[in-house]
Amino acid sequence: MKERTDLENTNDFELNLQEKAKTTLEKIVNFIIEDGEIQLINNEEVNTIVLGIKTSNPGVLIGRHGHTLDALQYIVHIITNKEIEEPERKKIIVDIEGYKERREDIVSKYAYEKAEIVKKTGKNIALCYMNAVERRIVHLVLQEEPLISTYSEGTEPFRKVIIAPKENKNNTEE
Question: Phi, psi (5° rounding) for residue 90?
């Protein structure tokens, strides 16, 4: 059986979407900074387009806790998928020099640190406000902790994760 390259597997529709996403991001980035370079990143996920930005000043595009980067990703997603039927839409991911992976590590460490405090004190801890992606990271990294449970409360943009000790069924409270 003949091996196919990524380009052979990608149809014209997908290539057009990738190009539309890249061009949209280029226009937005070039409006904000002068030296932004946009790259299409190879991706294993089927319905996802990953775009990377290289710049000498990434902080401007990342923003505080990644809020500007999240906004860029959202805008590019909306513009790229405009007038496209639901099953054909692609998820757009925008990253700047590995920021999202570093942020995931930071959020995970933060969650583990707070979980240890909950284990020691037996009291709930409310984490700072987080976006949906970061809240999901907390829930996933702590789901295997036998003494800890997590849940979210509040409304966007003030939604946060609560880390709580798991209820002991053998224990009765006074």
Answer: -115, 145
